[in-house]
Amino acid sequence: MYFSKHNIVSRIKDSDSFFIVNPLLQQADIVSAEEAKKIMAHDYSLPALAEKKYVLPIEEESRLFRQKYLEFIDTRETDEVQLFFVPWYTCNFACSYCFQDEYTNPNNISTPELIDSFFSYIHTAFAGRRKYITIFGGEPLLPGAQYKEIISTIIQKATEQHIDIAVVTNGYHIIDYIEILQKGHIREIQVTLDGMQQMHDSRRMLRGGNPSFEKIVAGVDSLLEHKIPVNLRMVVDKENIQELPKLAQFAIDKGWTQSPLFKTQLGRNYELHHCQTNNQRLYTRIEMYEDIYELCKTNPEILEFHKPAFSISKFLWEQGEMPSPLFDSCTGTKTEWAFDYTGSIYACTATVGKTEERLGTFYPEISLNTDDIEAWQERDVLSIDACKQCNVQLACGGGCAAVAKNNHGSVSAHDCRPITELLELGIGLYFKE
C-alpha cells in the first residue's frame, strides 16, 4: 500500500481539527488532531484511509491519474471558448494601477473590414465549438458616434451568428449604451467598483481627475432594471481592502445582491506588465486571502455580497463534493484567445496588446506562430518540472502561464498557488462544524 502523493493534510485555521483533501481521488475529510498525527506519520492503521483510498496501491493511483487526465483533456476540447476582442486601447479613465498605461498602441480603432475578418476567422477557426465574445479594452464603451457604431456592429454580427456577448467596462457610459446592449444576447457586463465613493474615486477617476463612482452606480442600477446581467468586480490591494465590508453593505442596501442577475468577483491588484509606482500596496495571493478571512469573520455581510473561493473550499461547501482534478489552470490558447484592432492574435487578456507576446494575425492576413502556440497548449502539470512531484498540483494546475513567463522567462515555468494555506482559511471559514 502507498500513501497517495496527492494527499493534502493541514490544520484548519482557528481550529484544533485538521483536514485531509485529495484532488485526484476527489475525497475530503475533517479529522481530529490525533488522526492527523497518524496520517502525517504515514501510519496506515486508520481504517478510513484505505476505505477512501487515501492509502492505495501505487499502480491504482497511476491508472486513475491517467484516466482523469484523459477525461480532463476530452472535456476541455469541448468546453466553451471565450474570445476577447479589443476594438481599441483608448480609455477615458486614469486608474492609479492601470497595466496598459505604457502600451505603445496608437489611439486607432477597429475598421469594418477588420471586424468582418475577425468574425470570419472565428467562424472557421472555432467551427463547431461553443463560444462567446467578450469585448475588452482599453474602455470599450466610450462616448461618441464612431465608438457606438463599432460596438453596435460587433453586437449585431454576434447576434446574427447566435454568439453571446460579454463586456468588460469601467461602467461610466453604461446608460448611454443600454439601447445598443439590449439588441444583443448579453451574457454579462463586468463593472468595477473599488470601494465606496471616496476610495473608488481616488483610484478610478476620469482623465483629468473627475469622479466616476456615482455614474457607475447609476449604470449598474440601469443594467439590472433592463434585465442585463452584472458582474461587479472589486480590485483589491492593501489600500482599499477595508472598503470590502462597506461595499458589501452598499450592494445589499441597493438590493443588488437579491437579483439573480447580479454576481461579484474580487480581483487581486498585482504586477502584470510593468512595475507599479506604488507596489508596496500589492498583496501576495495568500496575504489577500488572510485579510479577507479576518474581514469575513467580523463582517458576515461580505458573504452575502461575495463568497471567496479559497481554492476549492467554496466549491466543497456549496456542492458537497470535490471538483474534478485540475491538470491545467491556464486557459490561454485552450479555452481563451484574445484579438485586437491591429489584427493581432494573443493567448489571453494577460498578454493582449504586448506585441512581443503576439501569437499571429487574423488581419490583413492569417498567420500563426505555431511553435509559440504549441508551447502554450502543451503547458500543464505534466510538462512543468516544478509541478511533477508537487502534492497540490491537481488543485493548483500550474497557475498562470503569463505570470510564469514574466517571473521565470518561459510559459513552461510554474506560477505556484498557496493551495494548502488557502484550504486552511477556506475550510475554517465555510465549515463551522
Task: Give a structural overview.
This protein is an alpha/beta fold and 433 residues long. It is globular. It contains 16 helices and 15 strands. The protein starts with a strand and ends with a helix. Helix content is 37%, strand content 15%. The protein has a 10-stranded mixed β-sheet with strand order 11-10-9-8-7-6-12-13-14-15, covered by helices on one side. The protein has helices spanning 33-40, 47-51, 58-78, 112-125, 145-160, 174-181, 197-203, 213-225, 244-254, 285-298, 301-305, 313-319, 370-377, 393-396, 401-408, 419-430; strands at 2-3, 8-11, 18-22, 27-31, 55-56, 81-86, 131-135, 164-168, 186-192, 230-236, 262-268, 336-340, 344-346, 360-361, 367-368.
Per-chain topology:
Blueprint: E1 2-3, E2 8-11, E3 18-22, E4 27-31, H1 33-40, H2 47-51, E5 55-56, H3 58-78, E6 81-86, H4 112-125, E7 131-135, H5 145-160, E8 164-168, H6 174-181, E9 186-192, H7 197-203, H8 213-225, E10 230-236, H9 244-254, E11 262-268, H10 285-298, H11 301-305, H12 313-319, E12 336-340, E13 344-346, E14 360-361, E15 367-368, H13 370-377, H14 393-396, H15 401-408, H16 419-430
Helix pairs in contact: 10-16
Relevant terms:
TIM Barrel; three-stranded antiparallel beta sheet; alpha/beta; 16 helices; 37% helix; ten-stranded mixed beta sheet; 433 residues
In short:
Helices cover 37% and strands 15% of the residues. The protein has helices spanning 33-40, 47-51, 58-78, 112-125, 145-160, 174-181, 197-203, 213-225, 244-254, 285-298, 301-305, 313-319, 370-377, 393-396, 401-408, 419-430, and strands spanning 2-3, 8-11, 18-22, 27-31, 55-56, 81-86, 131-135, 164-168, 186-192, 230-236, 262-268, 336-340, 344-346, 360-361, 367-368. It starts with a strand and ends with a helix.
